[in-house]
């Protein structure tokens, strides 16, 4: 250890007296030095000062913008540490976690392996790695130490956040400082309360760097040691529950896409978990296997994204689309076609589509001057010589999805029925069709505009009601009337509650449910997927007697696969190459002429 | 200042030990060669070499790791600028004890693998060997050096880790009890609400 050499080097002067706030000039002077600490010449904007920033310092890992709160810095008496603080923030970008996708994986891995979900060790982990690298330079070590010496270090502090004070003990060991030099009274309290804490700190400081380059291995080891110091009954400890780390919350969070990608374990994570089990850092019985991991990670998202419901819905929507992909058959290559010069139907124009596709006349004609401009429509074009490669019928799918209390919330765990709906929608959309959907429980919510967008459909299907079950026969009746000769294929995903709804006595002028079903089934396929059902059941037969095409599904897990088969049968190439499409023969819907 | 006036530059000593451990990677130590090299080094320094019988007695129980440690110390003694302070520290002391006795005694937990991966263990070896030679560490009082050596003592670390592991097991059990209680309360709340 080179602490002896470090004590002989001259101390760098502070950037500004601790009584004054840091200025832009101070930051501008420190910034190039901070960049050079990592030995890289990268182009990043000079950080800005913001006295209202919630964090002492913060880096946006997407834009690489860095913000420093000069008031907080001055309060802990660490103006002289500005270079180290800036270098630390750069360390999050250049090293740990380096990317937001890695951060998302670490967050979900942490949820899988740690029993205490209310206190994350991730910030301490990445800070530890960054600061150990920076502290190889004695000047940086001194500046970083000054940051940690700025706050109180009492026995009460230790009781409120023992994990943080143990983490500082690890720096005392790693940096060759005297015992309690950083941790002071709080460190003494930790040593008293937790037997062998000093030894654990030394071992952690020794082992973590050696476990590189697999960051997940390093994290699991770190967490296996530091988790001992987490408070697991914060309600009994005054002031517990918060994080004492002065550099907490100092970088941005992953995007919905990052979390969706992280739902499946990577090879590196799997290797890290296997090694952790071999080494005894993890108990095999407490860690889900790879198959269960995805479910466990999806279930942990509400906790990870607490306070961010929109992001949670977006993550799950992405996840469902990716799950649905596995069930969809790949369509064969298209036959050769003529030029697409015949104008066809209109569909909503979305960001990412070519602007020249907008049909302004139709947009304004349909939506008026205001809505037509805000939500323009694009014209679809078909081949001038359609031939047999182009279907003579347009796929339109209308989904009715039961989201009553008997079904799980699709945002908190993968709901196979919602996934089945996703599969059906994607099957229709990918075969050139349109879809719309309605979710129902005691009431209902509709996405009733025809769409070709998988993203719109998947976002909509993430909604949940969770009440009783009341199928909206009035809406079905209205749909049948409004669709005229262009009836969509209608698919209901539900369970035996549909039978209960079908048999309910309704008051005039509401239509009798069996009559509504019969009318719908007479015009187009009306398919009902029924959970926990077999063909011989009396209630299944009664639904079929009303005119519906019943598809008994043995259990919830079988829904996606069943939906994939139905989607392929109804919308896939077998359906497309049929001469005239579907029609009803002898009471049954059939393909062919 | 240590008795005899020798104080090692800790940074220099740890660096030479570290380089020696890297040099040994993938090679098995040769006991006969090591004995010859050490004897030659002591002869060159006009220090008494251990007699054959004594050498045989001290190294009788040596395992591979002890010979690895011997190889490190002999290399530092014979091939680095630290030869002179080592010779000075050895004056009046039996060479066998400072090398062979040390390798099977104070340093017995320090395997080559540990030394190769941990700067802590390299410093531990450096401090313990300096102590075995009766030398001090430059810039430290004897009390400071002793305190730091004790803090680094891997045997002590391992012993304390056992206490930590026992405490961890107790905390895990308590945590499981708390989690079971929370789940039970949650289930009872669901039942009261009439849900299944």
Largest sheet of chain B: 2 strands, parallel
pLDDT under 50 segments of chain B (min length 5)?
none
- Largest pleated sheet of chain A: 6 strands, mixed
Distance between the termini of chain B: 77 Å
Q: Please tell me how large the radius of gyration of chain A is.
A: 31 Å
Give the strand order, joined by hyphens, for the main sheet of chain B. 1-2
Proportion of residues in helical segments of chain B: over 70%
Q: Give the C-alpha Rg of chain B.
A: 25 Å
Largest interface: A-B, 25 and 35 residues
Key descriptive features of the protein:
heterodimer; A: 593 residues; alpha/beta; three-stranded mixed β-sheet; 25 helices; 47% helix; B: mainly alpha; 2 domains; 10 helices
Give an overview in words.
The complex is a heterodimer of chains A (593) and B (196). With 593 residues, chain A is an alpha/beta fold. Chain A is 47% helix and 12% strand. Chain A has 25 helices and 13 strands. In chain A, 43% of the residues are buried. With 196 residues, chain B is mainly alpha-helical. Chain B has 2 domains: 3-142, no CATH class; 153-196. Chain B has helices spanning 10-23, 31-44, 52-59, 64-79, 83-90, 95-104, 112-117, 119-132, 142-152, 154-192; strands spanning 7-8, 136-137. A two-stranded parallel sheet of chain B has the order 1-2. At the A-B interface, helix 1 and helix 11 of A face helix 1, helix 8 and helix 10 of B.
